Amino acid sequence: MHNRTRLLGRTLAAAGTVAALAAALAVPASAATASTVEQDVAQLNQYVGDLYQGLPEGALRGVDPLIASPVPQTGHQSQTAAGPIPGCTDGSLLTYADKLASKLTPLENDALSALSGLSQLYIQGVASDQDPQVFGTDGQYSPRAASTIAKLRGFWDIESWNVQLVAWKGTDLGSQAKMTQTFALGLAPARVAAAAALATKVLSEVPAMQGGRNPLITLNAYSAPAGSLGGKRVMLGDGLLDVVGQLGFDSVSVEAVIGHEYGHQLDFAHDNYPGNESGEMGPDAYGGYFIAHAKGDAWDARAQQEVTYLDASIGDCYHSHGTPDQRKAAGAWGEKQATSQGNPNRIIPSATMIAHFQKEYPKLVPPATSPAAVAAAHG
């Protein structure tokens, strides 16, 4: 089994379906004879699994993570089943995340699985931008995040007033009140108080969770459409910002990631839900267009290139979100649309941008039966 099936797939994103997550969080058969901490972790997994099973139908519809597990867990169906692309190496962010996850013990990984899934549900279904938003573990990214979302709302032509930008913070797991609200989304009322108390207990009794500051808990960003749990929103994880900064992308991280996640909102607004890599590569392109455009961030060529390298860092080799080279190419294509247009102040309508990228996409990711793809597979 590939390393990310065991580690990254359980830590970076909640499962794509309620049933899948419930299976991933199943209580081990040996829980009855486990130590007290192991019993607590196993019981929390059970609570979180039941919570996901109890969510309203369609609650997680269309929610797109920046990073997803490239390989499905055993017994799960996924578009990544074609699995590893010959000659491909995962991007630096995914590689770094695997390294972090590999240091966890099985117990710590089980705790992380439950807490990360619970934390994501809080930020998607309970948190609101009506509360003060603090981006970054110490709030260091808050001004940039506020500026970026304001620019994006005025840049693209979709309905934007109701797209929330919310800070995903692992430390919210330490609030019993917030966890009570989260478990109430789908757990039987009689079990909510005990589940919330156990979540805060596990957070404190497993030191590797660092009181919610372990970056793996929030090492992602999400975009959700209208009709999903919590409605239209972009969710930005502290852990993602920390790791991206450590990899050297701090100067462009906030703008690039929010620009990408807002790009999903363009697709949502036009009912564009691709079942292939264009679902992630398109937002790379739309984000690239924004950061390079005179009326967007208007970044210079050096900063534009840095964004494409950030795009590459989140590429994978499992037919999931696009390879590093493909994601880099998608971002560069978007930037070129801005820098090469005759009127630098003209903003291409979002529907037109989507159509243009869908036309370009087959050149970036050739069909599996094309000569280019066959040659690559046998290279």
Describe the structure.
This protein has helices at 3-6, 8-11, 18-24, 36-53, 92-102, 106-125, 142-155, 176-183, 189-205, 238-249, 253-269, 278-292, 301-313, 324-339, 350-364, 371-377; strands at 64-65, 164-168, 221-224, 233-237. The protein contains 16 helices and 4 strands. A hairpin with an 8-residue loop joins strand 3 and strand 4 (233-237). By secondary structure, the chain is mainly α. The two termini are 24 Å apart.
What's the quick description here?
By secondary structure, this protein is mostly helical. The chain contains 16 helices and four strands.
Topology:
Elements: H1 3-6, H2 8-11, H3 18-24, H4 36-53, E1 64-65, H5 92-102, H6 106-125, H7 142-155, E2 164-168, H8 176-183, H9 189-205, E3 221-224, E4 233-237, H10 238-249, H11 253-269, H12 278-292, H13 301-313, H14 324-339, H15 350-364, H16 371-377
Characteristics:
379 residues, mainly alpha, four-stranded mixed sheet, 4 strands, 52% helix, globular, disordered N terminus, disordered C terminus
Q: How would the global form be characterised?
A: globular
Largest sheet geometry = 4 strands, mixed
The unreliable regions are 1-33, 69-81, 369-379
Mean pLDDT: 84
Strand share of the residues? under 5%
- Number of DSSP-assigned strands: 4
Spatial strand sequence of the major β-sheet? 1-3-4-2
